């Protein structure tokens, strides 16, 4: 009887610790982010994003791939998330380096802030005039169509 109770405790501890490791690696948010997203608003260098960009651009997260689709053209990169950081971090690997950003995922809304390649990671979701920060707010396509 004591052996069975001990075995149950060990199994429970293993399940909890493996779940914590998955969250640390970003799989919780990584699973939640998988979808097609449209742009609802954004600012680049303190100025509103153009209306045609907001209307025409889609972002797709599939596995560890991040694809931007604009006017039928696709550009694909890989991404990683770190939801253990405050604010949560997103890195996108481009051909010539890694772009560092932050993100906030709230149900069907995803907010991302990033600078130019090689810039330090932003610390908040503000794009001031004269800065190199872009802040973009996305909505799940399924939610937009409701």
Strands, helices and their partners?
Layout: H1 2-25, H2 27-33, E1 35-44, E2 47-48, H3 51-56, E3 57-62, E4 65-70, E5 73-82, E6 88-94, E7 97-106, E8 109-114, E9 134-140, H4 141-144
Antiparallel strand pairs: 1-2, 1-3, 1-9, 3-4, 4-5, 5-6, 6-7, 7-8, 8-9
Task: Write up this protein.
This protein has 146 residues and is of the alpha+beta class. It has one domain (2-144): Lipocalin. 28% of the residues lie in helices and 44% in strands. The chain contains four helices and nine strands, in the order ααββαβββββββα. Strands 1-3-4-5-6-7-8-9 form an eight-stranded antiparallel beta barrel. β5 and β6 (88-94) form a beta hairpin. The longest helix has 24 residues, at 2-25. The chain starts with a helix and ends with a helix. Mean pLDDT is 84; it is low at 1-26.
CATH-defined architecture: Beta Barrel
- Judging from the principal axes of the Cα atoms, what is the shape? globular
The CATH topology label is: Lipocalin
Strand order of the largest sheet: 1-3-4-5-6-7-8-9
Count the DSSP helices.
4
| Cα distance spanning the termini | 54 Å
The portion of residues assigned to helices is 25-40%
Average pLDDT rating: 84
Number of strands: 9
β-strand percent reads 35-45%
State the domain count.
Answer: 1
Provide the structure class. alpha+beta
Overall radius of gyration:
19 Å
- Output the helix-strand order: HHEEHEEEEEEEH
Uncertain stretches: 1-26
The main β sheet shows up as:
8 strands, antiparallel, barrel
Please write the CATH class name. Mainly Beta
């Amino acid at each position: 009887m004591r052996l069975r109770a001990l075995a149950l405790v060990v199994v429970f501890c293993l399940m909890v610790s493996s779940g914590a490791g998955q969250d640390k690696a970003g799989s919780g948010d990584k699973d939640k982010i998988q979808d097609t997203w449209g742009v609802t608003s954004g600012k680049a260098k303190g100025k509103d994003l153009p209306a045609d960009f907001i209307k025409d651009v889609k972002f797709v997260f599939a596995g560890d791939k991040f694809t931007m689709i604009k006017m039928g053209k696709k550009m694909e990169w890989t991404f990683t998330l770190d939801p253990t950081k405050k604010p949560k971090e997103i890195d996108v690997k481009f051909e010539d380096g890694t772009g560092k950003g932050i993100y906030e995922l709230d149900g069907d809304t995803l907010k991302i802030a990033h600078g130019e390649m090689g810039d330090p990671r932003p610390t908040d979701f503000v794009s001031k005039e004269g800065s190199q920060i872009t802040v973009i707010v996305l909505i799940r396509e399924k939610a937009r169509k409701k």
